[in-house]
Structure formats: C-alpha cells, structure tokens
Design brief:
mainly alpha; three-stranded parallel sheet; two-stranded parallel ribbon; binds adenosine-5'-triphosphate; binds L-tryptophanamide
Amino acid sequence: METNDTRRRVFSGVQPTGNVHLGNYLGAFRNWVALQERYETIYCIVDLHGMTVPYDPDDYRRVRLETAKVLLAIGVDPDRSLFYLQSQVPQHAELAWILGTITPTGALNRMTQYKDKLASGAPANLGLYSYPVLMAADILLFRAELVPVGEDQKQHLELTRDLAERFNHRFGETFPVPDPLIPETAARVMSLTDPTSKMSKSDPSEKSRILLLDSDEAILKKVKAAVTDSEPTVRYDTEAKPGISNLLEIMAACTGRSIDDLVAEYHDAGYGRFKEAVAEAIIETIAPIRTAYRRLDDREVARILAKGALDARSRAEALQAEVRAATGIDAF
Ligand code: ATP
Ligand code: LTN
C-alpha cells in the first residue's frame, strides 16, 4: 500500500452487525470497491460503533470476522486499501473525546438515526448518543476528503463537516471538510416486507432483506414474497407503488439497465414474471460474492486485519501528535 500518496483520500466504515444485505452492497460497498481504482482508500470495520447496542461478546468475535470476510469477498483489496478494525487503533477513541468537547448536544439531539434506534427499543446510553462524534473522528483521523455512504448517513456527515470547521476555527487549520459520496441508484434500498422503510440488518423479519450470503433458492423465495400492490402493471411510482419501484431500482442497480428500459420490457409481463427476472438479476450479482467468501481462510483474514491495524496505527499517530499539540495536551 502506498503511503506518500497524492490521490484524494476516501474513508468509510461498516458496523460488524452481521447480516450484510443487498442494501449495504448496492448502496455502499460496491462503490467502495470501485473507488479503489481512482482514490487512496481506507475501509474500517467500526466495531466500537457496533457496541452501542446490546451484543454478545463471543458472537461479536465471529461477526467481526464474518464482516471482514464479506468485504474481502466483495473485492476490498488489502493491497490497495487500508483495511482494519477500529478497536485496534486507539486514536479513534481519543479524537472522539476531543471532538466531543466541541460538539453541541443540540446537534446530537436532532440525529434521526439515534431517535430511530431509541424508538426501536435500543437502551439510551452515552455511546449511542455520541455515536456520530466517533464517526466524525474516524473520518477526520485520516483527513479523508470523500466518504462513500448510503443516503441514511447524510446527517452524520453534516455533523462531521461542522466539527471539522469548528476545530479548524478554534485550534487552527487541521482538517479538510469532507464530502459525502452518495450513489445515484440504490442509495436507499427498501425493505421487501415494508417498502416504505429501508432494508435493514436490524429488522426482525428475515424476509425483509436479501443477505449477501443467501442461497439462490432463498433469494427467489424472498423476492417472490416481496410486498407489492394490487394494480398489475410494472411502472415506477414510489408513492403509489413503493414495492414495485423498489424492485425496479434493485434490478436497475444489479443489471446496469435504466429503469425506463426495464419498465418498457416488463410493463405488462405480470408481477410473477417480473419478480423472477429481479431474483435472477440479484443472484447473478451476488452469487460470485458467496463463492469468494467460501474460499477465504480465517487465519489469513486475521493476518490481513493485524497488518492493517499496524499500518493504521502508525498513520493515526502522526495526526494524533498534531491534534495534541494544537489542543495543548502534548507532552512536555
Ligand atoms: P441497518 O440500518 O441496516 O441496521 P446500518 O445502516 O447501521 O444498518 P452499516 O453496516 O453501518 O449499516 O452500513 C453500511 C453502509 O450501508 C452504510 O454506508 C449505509 O449507508 C449503507 N446502507 C445501509 N442500509 C442501506 C439501504 N437500505 N440502502 C442503501 N444503503 C444502505
Ligand atoms: N455510521 C455508519 C458507519 C460508520 C461510518 C464511519 C461510515 C462509522 N464510522 C465513518 C463512514 C465513515 C453507518 O451506520 N453506516
């Protein structure tokens, strides 16, 4: 991996919560892989973020490894990207503390992800509340300029931008103000069982999402059972036909064809035939990921992560020294 790189720097993170789904892939991870061609890329499994909701430690070890394997299977390339576990780089937590001292609590009170998590039953703890501050630290720790995420993370990115500006203003020019990179299609893949809410790994219903490791049969079954409407024509109308519109978006994202083109072909095909075509497009897209996942060796993956953590720590130490000096907490 190059270190004195002059390309623009990209940072993104994923929580190791298991159940990596088609929404994660189309909305974010597929983009991560493509960005490796043109940018300096840093991809982090944000396991400190994942601890903000209740979890089982033994299960967490397994899920962290599984998440790393899924990303490698998708095509995150440790020779081209810095790839590591957040918890192994303590500078994330220190910078989060420092940024916390300039974060207005009013901004955190407005965070919709926080409010949604509380509404869905997560206990209100300080970690969950300050989650967006740790996310800002992740990004700023590497002075990243571009952050590929799905639509749902836009508000968190706004806070990151605001904190970069506040820090620069208060302590001197230190951080670039990062921009989100949100894909044009599939930025918000919706649930198959409730097409008015996003496909999510935490939805209690298994049928609501397609997992990247689902079998072909499971994919076909879930797509066939996807909630639609009773008017039989296939057309794009997110208000009147959210279910069909979601399937159209998914198929467009999987095949690279335009929605207009798909509507022209399937308008009168009937929902049954349309759904089969959607399932086939999904299977073609994700079956190779499943195959690559099975070929990975756990010990090799652990080695990749250990090496990534070493590199990430040494790079983070440089910024840590600068931030300590700027804020007056450097060593005498
Ligand atoms: P969830 O809401 O599913 O529990 P999350 O948003 O916490 O998960 P992460 O694993 O942290 O999921 O997110 C990984 C990436 O996937 C993020 O960039 C996020 O924006 C994106 N993403 C998550 N759900 C969707 C979706 N339904 N459509 C498009 N992108 C998504
Ligand atoms: N909050 C993000 C995960 C995340 C992230 C980041 C994304 C944590 N730190 C830094 C981009 C950059 C989520 O829930 N998807």
